[in-house]
Design goal:
With 77 residues, this protein is α+β, with helices and mostly antiparallel strands. The chain has one domain. The protein is built from one helix and three strands; from the N terminus they run E-E-H-E. Strands 2-1-3 form a three-stranded antiparallel β-sheet. The termini are close together.
Length: 77
C-alpha cells in the first residue's frame, strides 16, 4: 500500500520499547526515547538495556523502560 508521499506501508506486529528518564531528558532529547518495533521480546529487551546503560554511563541518571505489544501499520521506506 502506498500513501500520497509514495511511502510504502506494511502491517506489522511485534514489541515496541520506550525508555523514560527518571529526571530530566533522555540522552538530551525529548521523552520518551521510542525504539523500533522488534519481532522478538529478547531483541526489544536488549535494545532497552543498551539505551539505559548508555544513558547512565553518560552521567544522566537512571531511566525506566516499558515494552508494549505493537500491531499496526508502519512506514517501510
Amino acid at each position: 500500500m502506498k500513501n500520497q508521499k509514495g511511502d510504502r506501508k506494511k502491517f506489522i506486529t511485534g514489541y515496541r520499547p520506550a525508555i523514560y528518564a527518571r529526571h530530566g531528558l533522555m540522552l538530551g532529547i525529548r521523552q520518551p526515547l521510542d525504539g523500533p518495533v522488534f519481532a522478538s521480546l529478547e531483541d526489544a529487551e536488549g535494545w532497552c538495556m543498551h539505551a539505559m546503560l548508555s544513558h547512565y554511563e553518560s552521567r544522566l541518571g537512571m531511566s525506566d523502560a516499558r515494552i508494549e505489544l505493537f500491531s499496526g501499520m508502519a512506514s517501510c521506506t
